[in-house]
Amino acid sequence: MAASYSTSELMVVRAARELLDGEVVFVGIGLPNLACNLARHTHAPNLTLIYESGAVGSVPDRLPLSIGDPCLVKGAAAVCSIFDVFQYYLVNEKIDVGFLGAAQMDRYGNINTTVIGNYKNPKVRLPGSGGACEMAIHAKRVVIIATQNLKTFPETVDFITSPGQKANGKTRKDWGLPGGGPTLLITNLGVFKFDSESGEIFLTEIHPGVERSDVVSTIGWNLQMAGDVTETPEPTADELRIIREELDPDHLYI
Amino acid sequence: MESKVTTMADAISRFVEDGFTIVIDGFTHLICFAAAHEIIRQRKRNLTLCRMTPDLIYDQMIAAGCASKLIFSWAGNPGAGSLFGLRRAIEGQIPSPLEIEEYSHFGLAARLIAGAANLPFYPVQSYLGSDLPTVNPQIRSVTCPYTERSIATVPALNPDIAIVHAQRADADGNAQVWGITGIQKETAFAAKNVIVVVEELVDSTVIRSDPNRTLIPGMVVDAVVVEPFGCHPSYVQGYYDRDNDFYVAWGDISRDPSSLDRYLDEWIYGVGSRTDYVEKLGPDEVSRLKAELVLSTPVNYGY
Description:
Chain A is α/β, with parallel strands linked by helices. Chain A has a single domain (about 5-100, about 130-145, about 160-245), classed as Glutaconate Coenzyme A-transferase. Chain A contains seven helices and 16 strands. In chain A, strand 8 and strand 9 (about 120-125) form a beta hairpin. In chain A, helix 1 crosses helix 2 (about 30-40) and helix 2 crosses helix 7 (about 235-245). The radius of gyration of chain B is 19 Å and the shape is globular. The two termini of chain B are about 35 Å apart. Chains A and B meet through helix 3, strand 9 and helix 4 of A and helix 4 and helix 5 of B.
């Protein structure tokens, strides 16, 4: 029998399994950081972790609470400037996988992290792009991690900060976007892939104990489904031990 | 030659004028709160504040009424939520309206790169498919003369003053930085004047024993200020850790305007200098954040 686990732990483990040994990943703080370090501690010891602060090949020995935590520097393979990390690594297509969060996301994976409401007179001012826009454009593939409800998954986002598979009616090819864009979405309820023709998300996995109706009712459009929707694999005891004891011992994100 | 070494109060009074475009740099690392607090104490006004991440440092300056405009690319509390001072200014024009000019990280970095390289603009692929160009008329495009494809551009940024913090410098301002170096070098070369703030003033023989570590040469530096613990609650690699507890606490401090004002009164207006601030923090806090010793292997410059 599997040990009990939180939804965040399930999401971290699912994201970690998406990373292949030897890949180069642009890491974000929070669940993506846990996923990347879990992968490094399990099946992908040769994963190269790059943080947008310029730390390359980081081996953090504590939980980084910011993208520029000093633990990302100690023992790293290299530390470079902001110019270098964006121009020579990200724009120069050295990044295999990037992680993005979303305050709002539409069916094509267009992400809003800028503003809720009108830009000039906002209801809520969000942090903005940071490096998200560049990551959405240049990474070979993007994994999106988000909490699912009708506010975060509306029919139309209030602002496109980071382009998905089809932005403002044009495909990535039309726009000339060099990277592959979002290929996987992991939410608190399930896992989704992006249809290569339409660019739209479709449900492929449902988390254990979640009803299909819960998934459908928290998405603001008519959700597409895979022919064979499976159950998200549960974390192993070893994965849970690494997350709880080594990666996030104070349980800040899990 | 007149010494560049001076006090923070003197450097701010001489090099920061009302209406200036100013960058206090450092990407998470080396954010010089000591300089921001002195600018707040000297009640500078109508500044255009520029940073990729406004962070707590500009949240405090905006709440104190120093800024009329913000140029930025990510305006959250890094790792710890919202910047409520900044949000009140944008969402509710409190304490005064704040004009914003917004980029993505590389877009804003590219403005400083163009400024440092003495180029009129820098081409970036950053805005394909994004709505950012529709709200920022400074993001434009040119046709590439070789491929004939359109590419986005951002204009050079040449701040009136850059303030950069470093681990150490000599009296001429040759400044050495290790750990995350951000966009500090580009900012210093782009700016009309540069103040370097350091944890330690060292003899020039120390600097010259390891010249590869010099990020900013003294030739572009106008003033050197020695301000130990000058980045708290940010951090300095090899000196002290980030005060993450304070970054988290800032959410509650800044959520309510009166509690933010109380913070400004107690920790900025209520102290005369960074020395007073460190004394007020107390030795327990200082020792809690003190860095462990992790030395690099020396290199041989011989030939």
